[in-house]
Amino acid sequence: MTDIGKRRATAGTAAKRAKGSGRAAIGAQLLEMARDLESEPMTYAAIQAKYAISRPTAYRLIKDLDSLFGGAVRKDTAEDGQALFSLPMGSSRRFAFFSREEIVVLREAAKHFDTTGRPHDANRMRAMAQAVLTSLPPAQRRAVDVDAASLAEREGIAMRAGPRPLLDPDVVASIRQAILAQKVIEVEYAARIGGGVRTHRLEPHGILFGHRNYLVAFYEGDKTRGAALFALSSIRALRVDKAAFRFRPGFDIDGFARQSFGVWQGDPVDVVWRFAAHRARDVMETHFHATQVKTVLADGSVEVRFRASGQTEMLYHLVTWEESILSIEPEDLRLKYVALLERIRKAIGRD
Question: What pTM did the predictor assign?
């Protein structure tokens, strides 16, 4: 059963258990009252007796219910002249139990659709996220919205075609918890080459989802090095520590992701690629980079300019254009491309 299903299945018993003080208990009481008023009308006196509350509290709860359900609480008059309250059947379904993680997933999906040229689907996902928020009680809505917005600011999307490695949901959940609380994490990390496992204490600043999925973090207390990438699939264990940290001023996850062609970071270079005229339409429909500038030249070929790091991933992408790539700048990148083609030719053993 999913987390959502578990929460919905236990909502009824949770409402009856929550007899303490605070917003959780009040929310559970409102949920139980909404279900009761769907079943049968109740007077103030009946509400007082059932929930062992005072008359003023009964007034306030009815007022809160009416506000929550947009004025849907019906007020009739009983035979003895007392006010009689009820709710239309199905009203309590508006109590949706969604977490901040579930809402941020909807927002991440919207960002994904934006980056893949599907703005209408992106708008639908945002509308879904807003509908979920609207279904929550006001106090919970504000708290969840703030946390979801905070997570969304710390999670970017770096897109590249290819297989996606499996994600450990517990690792992602722990990282999100640490980001929200601004807590240091201690990770046991396996090196990609050699496989040796080392322990690092890190200040998590975000997550990058893409061809591979990465934690973006600074080493604890280290002011000399910039943000580092840690493949989520290489994290063998993760613990959220009690030690707190502050986000580095000016760090922006989307800006960090846009620096590179793909995920890997490095020194950015000014790139100029020219593609043959017969692929002009494909070039114009392809999103190469956030800083791209495209120019159709006199012979129908298309020149693409952008500034980014990640030359290795650029090389792999250029191979997919086959003979239609006519020129590559800078010269260092062109030479690396030629060398890559030569290695491929030698590997397959034919010209």
Answer: 0.42
Higher pLDDT, 146 or 187: 187
Q: Which of 62, 59, 67, 64 is nearest to 86 (CA)?
A: 62
DSSP notation for 84-102: EEE--TTGGGG-----HHH
**How many domains does the chain fold into?**
4
Who contacts 226 (Cβ-Cβ below 8 Å, separation ≥6)?
218
Question: pLDDT category, 18, cuts 50, 70, 90?
Answer: very low
Range(s) of the domain holding residue 222: 167-258
Which of 222, 231, 168, 248 has the alpha carbon at shortest distance from 195?
Answer: 231
Task: Please state the φ and ψ torsions of residue 32, each to the nearest 5 degrees.
Answer: -65, -40
Cα separation values, 102 from 139, 151, 158, 173, 230, Å = 18, 11, 20, 11, 24
Q: Is the pLDDT of residue 90 over 90?
A: no
Strand partners, 71: none
Structural domain contains residue 162? no
Taking the C-alpha atoms of residue 308 and residue 329, their distance in angstroms, rounded to an integer, is 12
Structure confidence at residue 21 (pLDDT):
41
Contact 14, 28 (CB under 8 A): yes
